[in-house]
């Protein structure tokens, strides 16, 4: 069953980026000329997944789909180039997607959940991280699964089962030229999230607030303005 479409007009969706990645180009202090930058960029491209995707694409992502000569392009392209082996709720390892929320608190709970999972794997809950908000605008018709909350496998809390179902849905919708999905936040009901399937849909990327997430010995974290 194909979910219904809804008209989206959101000018300030929220995506959190680790502040370590929100900085000027890492090679900038090392170069004096454009020629030197080109040489060093070629070396960086050997291990930089985003640059590799921009040059040659990925298994399920063509380089021509990515953004070029636009503010925020590195952040948008990185979202589609870097993937987890197991994927996420609506993308697999062959192609990333742009995930965001309609408000800061929902984005914090979503990103905090994933970092908590990482801390659980290394058996420690002592950590602190600062995240930069990236605001972005979306306008157009997106598939809406909010009415399926609690009745669809892909909205389950367990990534082991929910992600497989969500990835299957996403492949089906992408084949229909879907822009993406509006869905209820699993980590912070009644928050709302959006996933965009194509880079060019991410418009007017700009910085917002900064948040510090702190784990002080348990899986429950606190969030404060940074």
Descriptive key words:
single chain, 226 residues, alpha+beta, seven-stranded mixed beta sheet, 5 helices, 28% helix, 29% strand, globular
What is the average of the pLDDT values? 87
Counting DSSP H or I runs of 4 or more residues, the number of helices is 5
Low-pLDDT stretches are 42-46
> How many E strands?
7
Main β-sheet: number of strands, strand sense, barrel status?
Answer: 7 strands, mixed
- End-to-end CA span: 43 Å
Question: What portion of residues is helical?
Answer: 25-40%
Write structural notes for this entry.
With 226 residues, this protein is of the alpha+beta class. The protein has one domain. Helices cover 28% and strands 29% of the residues. The chain has 5 helices and 7 strands; from the N terminus they run βαααβαβαββββ. Strands 1, 2, 3, 4, 5, 6 and 7 form a 7-stranded mixed β-sheet that branches. It is globular. About 2% of the residues have low confidence.
């Amino acid at each position: 069953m194909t979910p219904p479409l809804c008209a989206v007009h959101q000018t300030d969706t929220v995506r959190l980026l680790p502040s370590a990645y929100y900085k000027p180009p890492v090679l900038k202090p090392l170069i004096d000329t454009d020629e030197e930058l080109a040489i060093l960029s070629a070396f960086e491209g050997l291990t930089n997944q985003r640059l590799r995707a921009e040059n040659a694409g990925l298994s399920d992502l063509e380089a021509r789909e990515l953004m070029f000569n636009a503010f925020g392009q590195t952040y948008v392209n990185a979202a589609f180039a870097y993937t987890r082996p197991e994927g996420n709720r609506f993308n697999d390892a062959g192609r990333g997607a742009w995930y965001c929320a309609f408000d800061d608190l929902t984005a914090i709970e979503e990103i905090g959940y994933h970092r908590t999972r990482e801390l659980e794997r290394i058996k420690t809950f002592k950590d602190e991280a600062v995240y930069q908000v990236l605001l972005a605008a979306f306008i157009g018709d997106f598939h809406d699964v909010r009415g399926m909350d609690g009745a669809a496998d892909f909205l389950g809390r367990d990534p082991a089962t929910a992600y497989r179902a969500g990835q299957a849905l996403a492949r089906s919708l992408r084949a229909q030229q879907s822009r993406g999905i509006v869905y209820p936040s699993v980590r912070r009901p009644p928050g709302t999230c959006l996933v965009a399937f194509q880079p060019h849909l991410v418009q007017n990327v700009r910085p917002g607030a900064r948040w510090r997430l702190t784990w002080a010995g348990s899986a429950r974290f606190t969030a404060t303005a940074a």
